[in-house]
């Protein structure tokens, strides 16, 4: 029902009291009738509009009131204003689902209710592990390099000296983007299977000497199990300069592992094969769980399979064939040499935190993840 602003001739205390009580009731009735956001705006303006809103009209009446009634009138007016403003500010809240539905809250605020807790996010354990390892190399003067996750066959394989029939090119291992049969093989897109393409991309942009560490996600067509995930994280490194030797590789990685796992760990290198390094090695660290004894009390140590050693990364001296692909940017294999290494951040996080299933890292269960918060 529309409310018409009073016009007083009698300014007695009782009339003022009743007049303002009526205005307050009219406001409450009007508010209950509001059903939509559009109606709400009309209602709000009806009462609050600076120009000709009900409160403004009552204020005009106040100006006309006789001197002796001003004090009492003013008190009622202020009270009504505060009431209207606080009701409009506090009792109406529009739902946030975009429906424009009005959520009317007629209960007063219960100040004894606990506040709404907004949890602060935390670093994911794999990212945390990756960042910690990256920092170890940053302290050694390495800078962080980055590259695309969707790569071409050229950067992922060819320029890294993968011969055409190398088993790693098999679609069993690699996730290719579909519908590219018309393209030349080197231009076909795939999800990078390692962070190594960033080595080539960086050497194309930067002349030697170079020291980079490359963290990032990689993908392989591995079925998910306790130790495999089709998506996982690598940390890769590359150092190129004149006269870099295998001794530099060993010294750098031995230092990095002591910095990361603690000064008591030992490192051991065993011959291996990677297409992009020659010679290649796998590096083991002495088991930081059992201290290298292979036993935890009377129990066998599972993470190191009782050997006292844990395989942690692959490494080697950059194959001269790889430098041939970036020769024009100062990487003449007769003049420069370098070493490269790569490790799995997820695997290191599993070992470091004693987690027995890699899937837990990627299921997004907050109860699991908040242990690192
Ligand atoms: Zn062990």
The small-molecule ligands in this entry are: zinc ion
Q: Distance between termini? A: 56 Å
| Average pLDDT over all residues | 89
Strand fraction band? Answer: 15-25%
Q: Using DSSP, what is the number of strands?
A: 13
- SSE ordering: HHHHEEHEEHEHEEHEEEEEHEHHH
Rg estimate, integer Å = 36 Å
> Share of helix among residues?
25-40%
Work out the helix count: 12
Strand order across the largest sheet = 3-6-7-13-12-9-8
Shape: elongated
Task: Give an account of the 3D structure.
The chain has 373 residues and is α+β, with helices and mostly antiparallel strands. Helix 3 (54-64) runs antiparallel to helix 4 and helix 5 packs across helix 10. The chain has helices at 13-33, 37-48, 54-64, 70-90, 125-139, 153-156, 197-205, 246-261, 320-324, 345-353, 359-362, 366-369; strands spanning 92-94, 102-104, 143-144, 150-152, 189-191, 210-219, 231-241, 267-274, 277-286, 295-296, 299-300, 309-318, 337-344. It binds zinc ion.
Brief overview:
The chain has 373 residues and is an alpha+beta fold. 35% of the residues lie in helices and 20% in strands.
What are the main properties of this structure?
elongated, 373 residues, 12 helices, single chain, seven-stranded mixed β-sheet, alpha+beta, 13 strands, binds zinc ion, two-stranded antiparallel ribbon
Strand-helix topology:
Elements lengths: L12 H21 L3 H12 L5 H11 L5 H21 L1 E3 L7 E3 L20 H15 L3 E2 L5 E3 H4 L32 E3 L5 H9 L4 E10 L11 E11 L4 H16 L5 E8 L2 E10 L8 E2 L2 E2 L8 E10 L1 H5 L12 E8 H9 L5 H4 L3 H4 L4
Parallel strand pairs: 3-6
Antiparallel strand pairs: 1-2, 4-5, 6-7, 7-13, 8-9, 9-12, 10-11, 12-13
Helix pairs in contact: 1-4, 3-4, 5-10
This protein binds zinc ion.
